[in-house]
Write a structure and sequence with these properties.
It is built from 16 helices and 17 strands. The longest helix is centred in the C-terminal third of the chain and has 18 residues, at about 355-375. It is about 40% helix and about 15% strand. With about 400 residues, the chain is an alpha+beta fold. It has 2 domains: about 5-130, Sandwich (Substrate Binding Domain Of DNAk, Chain A, domain 1), CATH 2.60.34; about 225-409, Aar2, C-terminal domain-like (Serine Threonine Protein Phosphatase 5, Tetratricopeptide repeat). Keywords: mRNA processing, mRNA splicing, Spliceosome.
Length: about 400
Amino acid sequence: MDQETAKKLLVEGGTFVFLGVPQETQFGIDMQCWNTEEDFRGIKMIPPGLHYVHYSAVSKETGDISPRSGFMHYFDKKEFVVKMWDKKLEDISKDEISEESIQRLKDNLLNIDKHLAPYPYEIWQKWKQLSSQITAELAQKLSPLNGLIRASVDLLPMSDKDRPRGNKSKQSIEPDPVSKEVQSDDSTPGQSGAKRVRRITEEEKEQAMLPDLKPAPGEAMRFTEIPKEKYPPGSTPGEITKHYLDQTYSLDLMIAQHDEPLHIIGELQFTYLCFLIGHSLEAFEHWKNLVILLCSCDKAILKYRNVYFNFIKTIETQIDEMPGDFLADIVMNKNVIYKKLRYFFRTVFVNKKKIDGQLLSLIVRFIENLTQKLKWDFTGLNDYEEDEKPVLVLFDDFVAIDEHCILSL
């Protein structure tokens, strides 16, 4: 850190005081993590903006590390935040610190300053790239009600009143004890009361045997729900096919749940950081589903130009920071993210005459970087692998030729 920046952060930077933290506890902020020493009291010179504070208790006897917990907080200039460690819970205390106690610490800042670690400024630029679209309001909206992002959420059995009742999808997977088949409630047209019988899938059998659990109150992440139905109510078979090929309708519904379109990229960044730093597998699944949705749209690329411009910049930075074993899985096993990126690039090049030149240049550079750094193969985008080969579907005056492209006959 240069002297000018250091002087500025000494004056304007935030301070996070964490009292009573046991020695050897894993503590970190943003992408940096340490094991604390006995005289550790917190972090100083925190650049104003959003930050992710995280920690894990470490057993003195065995050295076992507990699942990571943490929270996101937007530090204003000169903000002074104080938290306490709860020895019984081996976690951050739920008790609020009184204003008098905070003021006493402020007045005694010169004495505790030597026990405060400076913010690791070398990670600041990368952190800003990874969190550029996460506002303080969005972070609060997506975080659990209790404010804590946990790698391991406490699960409780659902009470009878919480269990779904009269749910057709639940009823449809109840096996017949003799035939091991299920009866659907769908009646054949013209045959009153007729039942259609189908076999239970292995996945449905496994799902039926699992206990009904739900996160403890206040601990569940509050991600935006991805629409289960990919088409508007009352759609014709041809319209349903169109909405499966181009999922702009689903993206529209998700964006409508945010204050502005770019917040969908903020949610993509939030879920990625909860996975990368917070070790949340639930967050990783939601991140993956968001990437799949954004890559499965056609009209949205033109409709939400700024969203896709930031999507490319965001996912490029995220892939750079992704753990090596996940990248290896994407490359070696042709993971769904790799496949969806291929679909997305194919869609872009089919529509390149309509796409903004700056966005197209950014996408071309992204492909070149992926190819150079990770040796990912994006040649032959018009060629299909065995499981990707399209099925021609004729409807009205259109023919669907792949997952993204619909050409007029």
